[in-house]
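Cast an eye over my tokenised protein here and flag anything odd:

===
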Amino acid sequence: MILPSRTASRALVLTIAVAAGIGWAQGPAVAAASGPFLAHQALYDLSLVKSRGNNSVSDARGRILYNFSGSSCEGYTSEFRQVSELDSGEGKVTLSDLKSTSWEDAAGKTYRFKIDTRMNDGESAPVDGIAERVGDHITVKLTQPVKKTFDLDGKVVFPTEQIKRIIAAAREGKSVLELTVYDGSDNGQKVYNTLAVIGKAIPGDHAPTPPDPSTASDVMKSMTRWPVTVSYYDRDAKATDGEQTPVYAMSFELYENGVSRALVLDYNDFVISGAMDKFDVKASKPCK
């Protein structure tokens, strides 16, 4: 990845849209495979861990504010805001501001999304659309940045469904899971091949290091969690020497109720950490 560049900075602000559910795409709170989603608000502080290569980053900082709510009856809503600053030295600083709202039904059949990205003092770059699973395929209808309708393979999953499947695989003792994910990021037409590597389960009585506001919550103290690394590959990019380099990778501890902590975001040329600064559990209406 060449820095400083619009591509690198955009990748930084689009992290959860795909994460996340930790997706850009979309955020750190998602449903457990056989339990309720935890409605909550989380605040993460971003900082530079290290940089690599000739195009090194001298500093990176920012914050992520994430709100998650909903139920299996009404679907799940994610509201995401990330402001980040990337310093490549010699006064070259890129400020990125991302606002994202998405809704996904519990069955993973419908996904609505609105993403607005602004770089420095430039014009905003909105993406607005809806993706619906129809028979053996998914139909995506974009209204921004351009009006366009296209189909995706029916095996593609949306961000919340992605995390559901990772949790299900973790509970079954699986260590690897491959999925193709669509989250509406970039220009609304990007699809990622993902590889999730899942570590051994960590019981709730095993204190995390270092602690954060989520680990101090009574709701979280008994929860099992797993160390997970998800690598994202551009499905349309060609492999070099038979091996493709991921666009970026995300490592985190994933709780069985879908909350994620201890984020580490690897963009090849630089690595960012996301430490949880605040964590508030929100009231959730049960299904009737």
Q: What stands out?
A: The first strand starts at residue 40 and ends at 51. The helical segments are 6-13, 159-171. The chain has one domain: 6-96+155-281.
